[in-house]
């Protein structure tokens, strides 16, 4: 892939850049501070310079050093305060002191946005707007939302964006966030403005509003039996607690006969299908094997000189696993092979036997995840925890309320997603759409 595509380098035509700068400056106070988070070759900077615009400070960013040098060159010839920083804007922490932001954000498809950029951008969005947008959102959307906290109340954003805000679900989510945190002052469609790319664009001016108090209750309604507490639909058990992990876990091939695959953690990038990450000594059905397990454990305790009362630990198996320590986002894992899990997980079995996958899918919807998050306790440094008593009370879409044909349809869709590898974003998107369709919950 070319550098231009990888970094979304499509320059704003001069006439549009000129119009944007003019419109923005008209709305700014004297001595304004302005930010351009993706400055490129200094397209907007040239227009500020040309008009000798009365702004106090112009700070810029670009990840491409070539572009940084070009922007600096333009600004050096324009006697104005400000800094052009070489680095990713997504990793900048906001200080809400800008009067204006002007941007042509990089258009980079979500598949090409790096994992750390995605994680950072989405966690900032969640923190700043108490909501989430689809993980399929492209870089333009992430840039727009990332820039808002940099504006003071009443500050103005002037942006040119590809047709991103109407054509896609995540674009609509971005627009909704902008609608609720400020107001659009003006916008205009531009037909195929960029050289070499056949897309239409929109230029808009938006003004940041006063911060709103986060809504106390979620959008989910509890009154009509459409949503019920998890414990009414699922059996929930904590996973197996090992008296001492170092003694009970062994990846040694000589122990293989006595150990079983075991799940103690699922790394974030592993998606939604449970994968054992180690092996553990767990109780078996054969008395002989259990005897050997006890012998081996006793030997290991002796060798390690630790104080542990050796006992057989039963395997806890369930089709769905939930790690109740949440770092980034809640995930319910499909556990096809019923791999036993450690007590970092709740082992979840839907009471309705025929629809296990449908429950798994529903538990991964954005609507349910927001409910989970609302009930989680903040442990500090980005970690949240769901106590089992809180977890059992979280409200979920009541699948039992649906007709059998509808449940069968969800089950079929879920099994197909599992078959295809259950890519996290895809699962969430499909699931959220189904919950919206059947339960009228956004
Ligand atoms: C669409 S161009 C716009 C450039 C210029 N402002 C214009 O309108 O012509 C987007 C710019 O963003 C830069 N860019 C891409 N990813 C970035 C990131 N994470 N942080 C800062 N700049 C980035 C690219 O190198 C590119 O110069």
Bound molecules: S-adenosylmethionine
Overall tally of structural domains: 2
Q: Number of helical runs?
A: 15
Assembly state of the chains shown: single chain
How would you describe the shape? elongated
Lateral arrangement of strands in the main beta sheet: 3-2-1-4-5-7-6
Brief sketch in words of this structure:
Helices cover 36% and strands 21% of the residues. With 442 residues, the protein is α+β, with helices and mostly antiparallel strands.
Explain what this protein looks like in three dimensions:
A seven-stranded mixed beta sheet has the order 3-2-1-4-5-7-6, sandwiched between helices. It has a four-stranded antiparallel beta sheet with strand order 9-15-12-14, with helices on one face. The chain has helices at 3-6, 14-27, 43-50, 65-76, 115-129, 139-147, 164-167, 169-181, 245-248, 287-304, 356-363, 366-375, 388-393, 404-419, 424-439; strands spanning 32-36, 55-62, 84-86, 98-103, 151-162, 182-190, 201-208, 227-229, 234-238, 259-262, 278-281, 320-323, 325-326, 332-334, 345-350, 377-380, 383-385, 395-397. Helices cover 36% and strands 21% of the residues. It folds into two domains: 3-208, Rossmann fold; 227-439, Adenine-n6-DNA-methyltransferase TaqI, Chain A, domain 2, CATH 3.90.220. The chain has 442 residues and is α+β, with helices and mostly antiparallel strands. The two termini are 37 Å apart.
């Amino acid at each position: 892939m070319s550098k231009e595509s990888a970094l979304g380098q499509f320059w704003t035509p001069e006439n549009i850049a000129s119009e944007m700068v003019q419109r923005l400056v008209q709305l700014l106070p004297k001595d304004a501070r302005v930010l351009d988070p993706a400055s490129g070759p200094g397209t907007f900077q040239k227009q500020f310079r040309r008009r000798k615009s009365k702004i106090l400070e112009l700070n810029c960013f670009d990840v491409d050093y070539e572009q940084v040098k070009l922007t600096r060159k333009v600004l050096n010839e324009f006697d104005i305060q400000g800094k052009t920083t070489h680095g990713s804007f997504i990793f900048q922490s906001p200080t809400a002191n800008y009067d204006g932001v002007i941007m042509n954000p990089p258009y980079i498809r979500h598949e090409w946005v790096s994992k750390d950029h995605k994680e950072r951008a989405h966690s900032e969005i969640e923190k700043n707007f108490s909501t989430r947008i689809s993980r399929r959102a492209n870089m333009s959307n992430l840039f727009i939302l990332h820039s808002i906290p940099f504006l003071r109340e009443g500050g103005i954003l002037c942006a040119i964006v590809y047709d991103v805000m109407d054509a896609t679900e995540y674009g609509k989510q971005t627009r909704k966030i902008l609608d609720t945190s400020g107001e659009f002052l003006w916008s205009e469609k531009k037909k195929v403005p960029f050289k070499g790319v056949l897309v239409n664009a929109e230029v808009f001016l938006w003004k940041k509003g006063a911060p709103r108090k986060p809504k106390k209750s979620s959008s989910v309604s509890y009154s009509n039996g459409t949503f019920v507490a998890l414990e009414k639909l699922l059996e929930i058990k904590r996973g197996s607690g090992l008296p001492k992990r170092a003694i009970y876990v062994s990846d040694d091939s000589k122990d293989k006969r006595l150990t079983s695959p075991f799940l103690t953690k699922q790394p974030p990038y592993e998606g939604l299908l449970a994968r054992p990450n180690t092996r553990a000594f767990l109780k078996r059905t054969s008395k002989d094997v259990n005897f050997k397990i006890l012998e081996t454990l006793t030997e290991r305790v002796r060798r390690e000189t630790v104080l542990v009362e050796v006992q057989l630990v039963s395997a806890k198996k369930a089709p769905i696993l939930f790690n109740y320590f949440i770092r980034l986002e809640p995930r319910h894992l499909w556990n096809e092979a019923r791999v036993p899990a450690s007590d970092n997980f709740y082992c979840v079995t839907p009471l309705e036997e025929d629809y296990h996958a449908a429950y798994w899918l529903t538990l991964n919807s954005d609507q349910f995840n927001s409910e989970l998050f609302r009930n989680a306790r903040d442990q500090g440094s980005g970690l949240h925890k769901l106590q089992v008593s809180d977890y059992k009370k979280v409200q979920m879409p009541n699948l039992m309320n649906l007709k059998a044909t509808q449940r069968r349809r969800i089950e079929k869709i879920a099994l197909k997603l599992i078959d295809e590898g259950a890519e996290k974003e895809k699962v969430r998107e499909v699931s959220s759409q189904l919950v919206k369709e059947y339960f009228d919950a956004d």
